[in-house]
Amino acid sequence: MPMLCRLAASVAAAASAAVLTVAAAAPADARESSSTLEITVERVLADTVDRFWLNCAPDFGTHPEPHAACDRLRTLDGDLHRLSPEYVLCPGDHDPVRVEITGTWQGEDRDFTARYANSCSARAVGGPVVPVDA
């Protein structure tokens, strides 16, 4: 029985070493290129909250348009503050949308919160990263 235990321990050690070798062999930029964000969209007056997650490189997630959202984030170099509310030509409906985005972009922490006047302004400034029509 001791021989069987030593054999099992040897196999486990070899498997662990193989996993560590593969992880160490991956280029640093490949490990850091992945970006994962959680996007929370709260429609204040409707009292609804939707949560989406978005992974870029490769692009996927529960976000309704992961490729379009990741493409937009890439053009912004991951600078979420460029999604900040600004004056846009939208109906004057008072229907606030609160957005929170947290996670990482290419290995760097991101934390963004904004309040848009309504879905139109959230779509105009934050789209397609902010999925207000989902």
Automatic annotation (TrEMBL):
Gene Ontology MF terms in the entry: serine-type endopeptidase inhibitor activity
The organism's place on the tree of life at top rank: Bacteria
Gene3D superfamilies: Subtilisin inhibitor-like
Main localization of the protein described in the UniProt heading: secreted
Subcellular location: Secreted
Coiled coil: none
Keyword Secreted assigned: yes
Pfam families, A to Z: SSI (PF00720)
GO cellular component: extracellular region
Signal peptide (residue range): 1-24
Residues annotated as domain Subtilisin inhibitor: 35-118
UniProtKB keywords: Disulfide bond, Protease inhibitor, Secreted, Serine protease inhibitor, Signal
Family classification: Belongs to the protease inhibitor I16 (SSI) family.
Name assigned to this protein: Subtilisin inhibitor domain-containing protein
